[in-house]
Amino acid sequence: MSVSETPQPGRAPIGRIEFVALMAMLVATVAFSIDAMLPALPRIGAELTPDAVNRAQLVVASFLLGLGCGTFFTGPLSDSFGRKPVILMGAAVYITGALMAMIAPSLELIVAARILQGLGAAAARIVALAIIRDLYAGREMARLISFVMMVFTLVPAIAPLAGSGVIALTGWRGIFAIFILFTICTTLWMLLRLAEPLPAERRRPFRPRALWSAVKEVLSYRTVRLSIAVQILCFTTLFSSISSIQQIFSATFGRTDDFPYWFFVIALLAGTGSFVNAALVMRLGMRRLVSFALMAQVCLTAITLTLFLIGLPPGIDFAVYVAWQTTVFFQAALTLGNLNALAMEPLGHIAGMAASVIASIGTVGSVILTVPVGLSFNGTPLPLLTGVLACVLGGTLLMRKLEKIEHYEG
Question: What kind and span of H or E run contains 155?
Answer without folding.
Answer: helix 154-170
